[in-house]
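Dear support,

Our group has been running a series of protein-ligand predictions, and this particular one with heme C is the one our PI (initials K.S.) wants archived with full inputs and outputs. We had some confusion internally about which version of the output was final, so please treat the block below as the authoritative record. The input we submitted was:
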Amino acid sequence: MLTAKPVTLCNVLLSLLLALTTSAAVVAVADGGVDQARPSRGAELLLPYKQQLQSALLGGMSQGVVEAIAACRLQAPAIAQSLSHNTVQLGRTSHRLRNPENSAPDWVAPLLQAYLATPADRAAKQVALDNNRSGYVEPIVLQPMCTACHGQAIAPEVAERLAALYPRDQAVGFMPGELRGVFWVEYAVEP
Ligand code: HEC
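Confirmed final output from the archive:
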């Protein structure tokens, strides 16, 4: 069992990585006044965030699930911070947060609620914001491998570690295919 595990995990992670890259490449903005032919600026800005989160998770999981918790906890906020600056802010949020610090700007909540209300709609969304800024979100759908830390049957040592770090954790009990939250980015629109 111990020898079979890493192979299975690697396969899952690899297919996940490919799925992420593919969806990012073909993403089209469903609504909002955006040129459909051009890749969306929001999608471009989110891509390195998604890739770096993925490799942090991959790196952590290669050490073990409990070890990967530390990778998510420490690296995820640092990655978001490193890619945010004056004209760009980005992050990920959820209707069931693990870390309360992952709350998003106010404009994100109605978009997240719309995804929850319409499970068939998983297209990216674009909204115009005040001060020549634009907002863009992409849904985050739970993958099978995410259940190790967000699912219904979490290993006791993982559950114990999560409970110690996140006493108000709401991000457990998810099933694969369920909406886990959204990636969001807010940026200044170039004239
Ligand atoms: C090794 C355990 C682990 C795995 C596996 C894992 N996560 Fe997480 N996840 C965490 C931790 C820990 C946090 C809190 C990070 C922080 O403090 O910012 C988190 C936070 C999040 C958040 C931010 C919102 C919140 O609730 O704070 C999202 C969204 C998320 N995870 C989605 C996923 C998805 C999708 C997958 C699968 C691709 C996944 N996670 C796999 C441990 C994990």
